[in-house]
Design a protein that fits this description.
Blueprint lengths: L10 H31 L13 E3 L5 E3 L2 E2 H8 L3 E5 H16 L5 E5 L6 H9 L3 E4 L2 H9 L7 E3 L6 H10 L3 E4 L2 H14 L3 E8 L10 E2 L4 H11 L3 E7 L9 H22 L5 E3 L10 E2 L2 H10 L14 H18 L6 E4 L3 H4 L3 E11 L5 E5 L12 E2 L2 E3 L9 E6 L8 E8 L7 E4 L20 E5 L2 E6 L4 H5 L5 H5 L1
Length: 491
């Protein structure tokens, strides 16, 4: 029965209450005094210059790309909006392939999973870049885009038997076996088709992607896989494939990666007598103007509102530099052993297309009843999933000339507290309708996007003075187009 009067706490409850009160008081002290003191000691952000992306201030004091007003572009096609810089994409592709064309670098195959937009892929292939695919869908897409079979590398941990057979019958450049059991499947299919398959072995090393990716380099299954492959008359074992996984930014990281692969090849040759004629060193090179956010930096940013600091673009090794370096290292390594050096292959993703795309998103609301003020954007985690984990330069498209003095919490439109892009980002005083540009959106923004409560946005390609629609926006009908009514299912 309930009773009137104050509740009497037992010793246990009283202790919990006292500890809770002390904890709350400590939090307030940290928030009011310690936090600001720590934050003041942290560096403040200095924005990367506009011209790194070919941006400029237009005659109307808004942000322009060449002759195109980006604010007007968002009004014309709607927002959010993915914008591809066609000229930059072409230049990046040609720069990446230059060492190979000169006979002093690696062949380049683009990682489809990074940005599988046909309008982007067509331009890369037109420049001579091949396709690195990891699924039956991506293999199908490469063929649909007219990529010659000998310009396709088939990777991935979950190749369907049907797609393996298609790759073998069409004669792709490489099918990289992800495991010993998958290798046996590939051999069985090739023997059934009576068609020779050009085979590579994917291997993994400590510090690189392992687990479901590749055969452990220290496992006895490496030698067993070589033995199984060599016993088949329809297998041409030519390659070793390694993918770092974690992003490599500097030349030292890249050379360590390549050296690890070369040392592995030396050990394999010593044990088995087999040596690869194709050395596929994977991708994982950084986009110069974006970078992962460290755990400590992220915690301080979230808890104390400290600035996220942009990377120094000059510290990033380019695809061309990595290409020349890997080829020179392989030539020296195999030459010292009296062997012919293998052909080197790279599979860049973010380093090739990351910087040639931006995302335009519009301010839907400014919530000024809390600190920091919240900007509710029409693009959030649903279409910009990499943002909370990576530094991406943001610019005010509508007011680029005004000082960025107001810190905002940038949130998306989804009804979940997880939809936070950045917890603290200073921008000019924002108003509903303002447009913000998220740079370096050409890596994993489109493939990681979802239709969580909102259709996915269109994609346009800027070519000179024109912007061409490359993908129309999803409609509400598109989101239910594959569903069937109950009466239809019953038929």
């Amino acid at each position: 029965m309930p009773t009137d009067g104050p509740v009497q706490l037992g010793n246990h409850e009283r202790a919990i209450y006292v500890l809770g009160t002390a904890r709350d008081a400590a939090k307030q002290i940290v928030k009011q005094y310690v936090g600001p003191a720590v934050a003041r000691r942290r560096p403040t952000r200095t924005d990367l210059p506009l011209d790194l992306w070919g941006l400029r201030i237009g005659r109307n004091q808004r942000l322009w790309h060449g002759s195109i007003d980006l604010h007007e572009l968002a009004e014309r096609f709607g927002s959010p909006l993915h914008v591809v810089d066609g000229a930059r994409l072409d230049a990046e592709a040609n720069d990446a392939l230059a060492p190979f064309r000169e006979g002093a670098g690696a062949d380049i195959f683009y990682s489809y999973k990074t940005n599988p937009v046909p309008a982007v892929l067509r331009r890369l292939h037109a420049a001579g870049i091949g396709a690195e695919v990891i699924s039956a869908y991506e293999l199908w897409l490469a063929f649909e885009l007219g990529v010659p079979a000998d310009r396709i590398i088939y990777n991935g941990p979950a190749k369907s038997p049907e797609s393996i057979e298609l790759a073998i019958r069409r004669g792709v450049h490489l099918v990289n076996a992800n495991s010993l059991s998958e290798l046996r499947t590939i051999v069985e299919i090739a023997e059934r088709c009576a068609t020779t398959v050009r085979l590579g072995l994917r291997v993994s090393f400590p510090g690189m992607w392992g687990g479901q990716f590749g055969i452990d380099a220290e496992s006895t299954q490496v030698d067993e896989a070589i033995r199984v492959a060599q016993q088949s008359d329809v297998v041409d074992l030519v390659g070793v494939h390694v993918h770092r996984g974690g992003t490599m930014r500097g030349e030292g990281e890249w050379q360590w990666h390549v050296s690890t692969v070369l040392d592995f090849c030396a050990g394999v040759t010593e044990r088995t007598g087999w040596s690869p004629t194709v050395l596929d060193v994977g991708g994982s090179l950084a986009c110069p103007t974006s970078a992962g956010i460290g755990d400590r930096d992220y915690r301080l940013h979230r808890a104390l509102g400290t600035d996220l600091i942009p990377p120094d673009p000059a510290t990033a090794i380019s695809i061309a530099q990595a290409s020349r370096s890997a080829t020179a290292m392989a030539t020296e390594h195999f030459g010292d052993r009296g062997c012919v050096a293998p052909a080197v292959v790279q599979e860049p993703g973010r380093a090739l297309t990351g910087g040639s795309q931006m995302l335009l998103t519009r301010v839907l609301d400014v919530k000024d009843d809390v600190e920091p003020h919240h900007l509710v954007l029409d693009g959030g985690r649903n279409i910009a999933d990499p943002l909370p984990h990576e530094y991406h330069q943001l610019f005010s498209v509508s007011k680029p000339c005004e000082p960025a003095t107001r810190p905002y919490r940038l949130v998306g439109p989804i009804c979940t507290p997880a939809d936070v892009l950045y917890y603290h980002w200073a921008l000019p005083n924002a108003a509903v309708g303002d447009v913000v540009a998220v740079m370096d959106a050409g890596a994993y923004f489109v493939p990681f996007s979802t239709s969580f409560s909102f259709p996915r946005p269109p994609i346009v390609v800027i070519d000179g003075d024109d912007a061409v629609l490359a993908r129309i926006a999803e409609s509400f009908d598109d989101l239910t187009a594959l569903d069937r009514a109950a009466e239809e299912r019953a038929r």
